[in-house]
TrEMBL record, chain A:
GO molecular function: hydrolase activity
Source taxon at top rank: Bacteria
GO cellular component: plasma membrane
Membrane topology designation: Multi-pass membrane protein
UniProt-listed InterPro entries: CidB/LrgB (IPR007300)
Compartments, as annotated in UniProt: Cell membrane
Transmembrane segments: 24-47, 59-76, 85-111, 131-155, 199-222
Protein name: Putative murein hydrolase (TIGR00659 family)
TrEMBL record, chain B:
The keyword Membrane is annotated on this UniProt entry: yes
InterPro entries: LrgA/CidA (IPR005538)
Transmembrane segments: 5-21, 27-48, 60-81, 87-108
Domain of life, source organism: Bacteria
Protein name, entry field: Holin-like protein
GO terms under cellular component: plasma membrane
Membrane topology: Multi-pass membrane protein
Amino acid sequence: MIGASMLLWTIVVYMAMRKLYARFYFPLLVPIATSTVVIIITLSLFHLSYEQYMDGGKWLVHLLGPAVVALALPLYQHRHTLKQFLWPLLCSTFFGTIIGMGSGLLLARLFHLPEQVVRSIIPKSVTSPVAMDIAALIGGIPTLAAVYVMVAGIFGAMFGPTIFQRLRLTTALGIGSGLGAASHGIGTAKALEMGKKEAAISSVAMTLSAIFASLLCPLLLLL
Amino acid sequence: MGITIIQIGVLYTLYVVGSFIQQLLHIPIPGSMIGMLFLFLLLMSGIVKEEWISRGANMLLSHLTLLFIPATVGVMDYVELFSGKGIWSIFVVIVSTMIVMLFVGFIGQWAQTREQKRVREVKGA
């Protein structure tokens, strides 16, 4: 019963927040952020735990797998663009992954964060299942890593487009690869709002980042 | 509507296949991504036609944000991170995210403008 109402509530909140965003189009109002906040507030008002929420929420999570598979469609539709820019994409995401993990590590050390937190921050730019695996491998806390992945995702969806606009980063390749490499699936969902081509590039950047991060993480163990 | 649901079922099957391959071979890449690459290859080789999955795929993709909400709500168990000393870890994540976004974004932009210039020159000559 709680499960079904949680599922319904999530959909209702999402629909309402989408309407709100379409009406005001203000970065702080991106549906992923506002829906999350509204749901967390209602859960605490009714003294419901995350576990109870997931009774309903898990049905949406079940659809996330096939949704990622579905990204093959924009990938296929824009295969010519991707082929044309394969090398720049490979290079930028490879170094982007190194910079992402490296800057996270250095900054976290600079702020004297606890070692386990440092190691949970490192994989923040890659999609959560991969990030959680990496965190476990390098001595971080997987659930904490997932939280940082969400922060990276929401931040990218919230401010990415505005920052790009300010800095005149306007090409589909720039926007798509930046969002995918830094903010994984949530960034790709945002890229989809901006265009199918952006989304195709974003999903490639996100996939490549996940692959590179998994390959590079054994090296991080040496640090 | 029926067709859309059947097509989502096809995508789900591919996801299950991807997860199975992942567990079988112990690849450190999620099953969903293996499923995506698999579907991409099926589309490229013409074994699967675009129309067979396009309705279901577009349905899922247009509400991708909704599907991420349960995961982001998980932050509620870590609210203490957003106050006190924990806030620095959030700050670190945000700064590092911005660095990656701009680095990768500008290389992408540079590659695209260079390519467009090259195409224009070829056409001009």
